[in-house]
TrEMBL record:
Belongs to the short-chain dehydrogenases/reductases (SDR) family. It is an enzyme of class 1 (oxidoreductase). InterPro entries: KR_dom, NAD(P)-bd_dom_sf, Sc_DH/Rdtase_CS, SDR_fam. It holds the Pfam family adh_short_C2. This is 3-oxoacyl-ACP reductase family protein.
């Protein structure tokens, strides 16, 4: 089976569940060999590896704490070493720590910045050493970077807003090498962390123009476009795949 990403290698951070898992499966379906990082759910990561192999692609799950820069760099180098190249990086790993500004402790702040801000930078820094022309960097942000509709989102919103600057800076710096960098801001998406039948789901749906949650596969489709040849002239862009949440 051939696809538009046939012969390419993709790394999806935090790829064992939710949006990350959907992205990994979509990229594999488009023809890429796919590696993913995970922190705790080795069982889910192993299941996903088998699903990717079932569609005829190579797969690798690498344990790595995104808060640890050395672990991040080692994960990227391992993927590039085992697969022989690296073409697509999807910065998906993140933490969602919320609460009133006055009650958030330094550990929560440091963890959020380490995983949501520093890790995407370090992953990109390590990945571009292996990328050639046609390389792709896609970061997964959040709709609340543009519209924080509930109290308690200041820390998380701040961390996701930082990805806008990272994306634009990478696009400008790497464009001469034929490498693109883009940002996808999902809206409410039906995952374990934010189920469509959760306690606040009705209110959250009401903020969207479409009146529903996204399926993770819908976010993965946007990432696949940016990762593929049809997205080759898109760089430095932010795509709000949010059901009209920010409209």
């Amino acid at each position: 089976m051939n696809g538009v990403l046939d012969g390419k290698v993709a790394l999806v951070t935090g790829g064992s569940r939710g949006i990350g898992a959907a992205v990994a499966l979509r990229l594999a379906g488009e023809g890429a060999d796919v590696a993913l990082t995970y922190e705790r759910r080795a069982d889910r990561a192993a299941e996903l590896v088998e699903q990717i192999k079932a569609v005829g692609r190579r797969a690798l799950a690498v344990p790595a704490d995104s808060a640890d820069p050395e672990a991040v760099r080692a994960a990227v180098d391992r993927v590039a070493g085992e697969f022989g190249r690296l073409d697509v990086l999807v910065n998906n790993a993140g933490v969602f720590l919320t609460g009133p500004v006055g009650e958030l402790g330094p550990d929560e702040v440091e963890r959020t910045i380490a995983v949501n801000v520093r890790a995407p930078f370090v992953f990109a820094q390590a990945a571009v050493r292996h990328m050639t022309e046609g390389g792709r960097i896609v970061s997964i942000g959040s709709n609340v970077a543009e519209r924080a509709v509930f109290p308690g989102l200041a820390l998380y919103s701040m961390s996701k807003t930082a990805l806008l600057g990272l994306t634009r800076g990478l696009a400008r710096e790497l464009g001469g090498r034929g490498i693109t960098a883009n940002l996808v801001n999902p809206g409410p998406t039906d995952t374990d962390a934010n189920p469509a039948d959760g306690p606040n789901a009705e209110a959250i749906r009401g903020f969207t123009a479409l009146g529903r949650y996204a399926d993770p596969a819908e976010i993965a489709a946007v990432v696949a476009f940016l990762a593929g040849p049809d997205g080759g002239y898109v760089t430095g862009a932010t795509i709000n795949a949010d059901g009209g949440f920010t409209s």
